[in-house]
């Protein structure tokens, strides 16, 4: 019983498909974003009270929501939620005044599949920016100070047939100028864009469509990158050493027996992360660093060495895929999650400090 | 040939009777004893000794030891009294002896059986006991784990409660700090003292002092990166397990596009263009001129023998002119060419199955037709029409069952 336990704290049924859940910073509340059967967007606010989830507020918007993030919120007290919807609109909402968004742009021609934000909440340096990935094959970076046009975009080259971009994440933002964006596509491409030099820093193909990407920390020199894909594969890349030809070293794990939809690192321990699968299962992993993270080859070039993954715990909570998962930044082990069985759940993982 | 031993010695007390039987050099390991409550036979080949006892003995309490080349049998009497003779009076009567011997054997057999049964039942009770113990242990283990889980859960509920309260307090404090900071920032009196009510719920009637926090970082210079993708022919996402089949299908498609250069006919450019031929045949089909359509497709098939859609479409034409057998043949050929089964050729496969199924039904081969419909249903489980048609065929088959 010394292993961490994943305990279902409470769950709540809703009457719409939930696509994303996120904790509201500095509170015991979380929001859920989704799609009503009638095609409108759902934005609900829940609070944890007395061992149960209470619905505090319900909002309906004209278009269904696909994803959201608080990452570019100016401060932990003033919470701004950036969302992407099914029509390709990226909008930023002030949670205290939800009637109208404070920023709205039709940034893409098709659905925004994933969104990530950085530079807000007092975390990291540099301007607060939002990245969106869409089915139109483009990744756009937005700054709320510039209306209508993205500050940076990664688009298919002339004559290139577009591929669905499924995942996007920020990283390497350890000072005010450095920042990278990593994008994953449905044909298995993973591309690392450097925003300071406006160039592609690394690209590779991991043979299965990429569902989710996440750096272990956005605001440090890039350390590890988790990529979860179709066909039950989880890749963890060691991002400290880049070899000219071989790129970054990685370890691959097969789990869940189904598409691995999400991978999320624990905010309090960057070597622990949770993956959620299409079979409704949740796996808690720990990354073990190798003895030496760098190996010198015969031609004097350095190549990274990947570590190993240990499965700490797993739990099956539903029969439908998990659509979202978010660790609470305030309470270690507390997480909210949603699944396609129209339920939001709150989980608690114990004994995380004994890892 | 067995040798009977007769030169034995015996002694008795009220309770016991001791027999000394000489072993005559035979090995102790070869000793075999058969005893019942009035019969004793000791044999060690080639010698043997048997006696029909005068009175009853207690078989279970009697003992046999081997000592100094003698077999010493200590028999405990059932009734403690002196016998004065060893063998029963009827010992010389061969018939009587035979009966006695049989009796003894039967008794021994029964005793064996009883012992066996007792063992078996003992084994059973032991097993059941063991199982019960096991279950109890597992139950205890389960309870232990459950209690641990429950204590964890309770501990967490308490922690959660604290966390919630803390957050509320923190938020209040943060808001007040924010308010103070804001108020102290204002140098001009234009701000009247508005009462700011901050509630935890999103409320619409509150007015707020809007202070933009200064974002110090500069806006990024607009930039653009052109992206090239790893090429993929199919629009569907890449799956490792499908890559082999997809590659094979692509190769077959490329192959089928090569037209058959064995033909020595002199054909015009148009007649070698598969799209032209398909359009022409389609026109004939739309006009109802099915025979001509068949003609064009057949011509196209001679040039492009591996293109599945040609067979499939010709099958449709045959169906229209009621050539059901030919339709079946063409659909079968099309299905053969639509292998390996990938997402790309799924719609074609479904159509081929449905068409062949219908043709079979027209030929009154309903069982075969049902097979095709069920195949189509597996490929496309959401299609209500196929499901209903399959059900109709099934019902028809059941009604007209041939009890032959």
Concise overview:
The complex is a heterodimer of chains A (355) and B (404). By secondary structure, chain A is mainly β. Chain A is built from no helices and 30 strands.
Write the layout of secondary structure elements.
The complex is a heterodimer of chains A (355) and B (404).
Chain A: E1 6-13, E2 17-23, E3 29-35, E4 41-49, E5 52-61, E6 65-69, E7 80-85, E8 89-94, E9 103-106, E10 112-118, E11 129-134, E12 139-142, E13 152-156, E14 165-171, E15 180-185, E16 189-194, E17 199-205, E18 210-215, E19 224-229, E20 233-243, E21 247-254, E22 260-266, E23 269-277, E24 281-288, E25 294-296, E26 302-304, E27 308-316, E28 322-327, E29 334-339, E30 343-349
Antiparallel strand pairs in A: 1-30, 2-3, 3-4, 4-5, 6-7, 7-8, 8-9, 10-11, 11-12, 12-13, 14-15, 15-16, 16-17, 18-19, 19-20, 20-21, 22-23, 23-24, 24-27, 25-26, 28-29, 29-30
Chain B: E1 3-4, E2 9-12, E3 16-22, E4 31-36, E5 39-44, E6 47-52, E7 57-67, E8 70-77, H1 94-185, E9 223-227, H2 240-257, H3 269-272, H4 274-287, H5 290-303, H6 308-320, H7 324-337, H8 346-362, H9 366-379, H10 384-399
Parallel strand pairs in B: 1-6
Antiparallel strand pairs in B: 2-3, 3-8, 4-5, 5-6, 7-8
Helix pairs in contact in B: 4-5, 5-6, 6-7, 6-8, 7-8, 8-9, 9-10
Would you kindly provide a written description of the structure presented here, covering whatever features stand out?
- The complex is a heterodimer of chains A (355) and B (404).
- Helices cover 0% and strands 56% of the residues of chain A.
- Chain A is mainly beta and 355 residues long.
- In chain A, strands 1-30-29-28 form a four-stranded antiparallel β-sheet, with no helix packed on it. Chain A has a four-stranded antiparallel β-sheet with strand order 2-3-4-5, with no helix packed on it.
- In chain A, a hairpin with a 5-residue loop joins strand 2 (17-23) and strand 3.
- Chain A is globular.
- The relative contact order of chain A is 0.14.
- The mean pLDDT of chain A is 92.
- Chain B has a four-stranded mixed β-sheet with strand order 1-6-5-4, with helices on one face. A four-stranded antiparallel β-sheet of chain B has the order 2-3-8-7, with no helix packed on it.
- Chain B is elongated and about 130 Å long.
- The model of chain B is unreliable at 187-212 (pLDDT under 50).
- Helix content of chain B is 53%, strand content 14%.
- Chain B has three domains: 3-88, Immunoglobulin-like (Sandwich); 93-185; 271-402, Serine Threonine Protein Phosphatase 5, Tetratricopeptide repeat (Alpha Horseshoe), CATH 1.25.40.
- Chains A and B meet through strand 4, strand 13, strand 16 and strand 17 of A and helix 1, strand 9 and helix 2 of B.
- Chain B: Residues 94-133 form a coiled coil.
- Chain B: This is CS domain-containing protein.
- Chain B: Keywords: Coiled coil, TPR repeat.
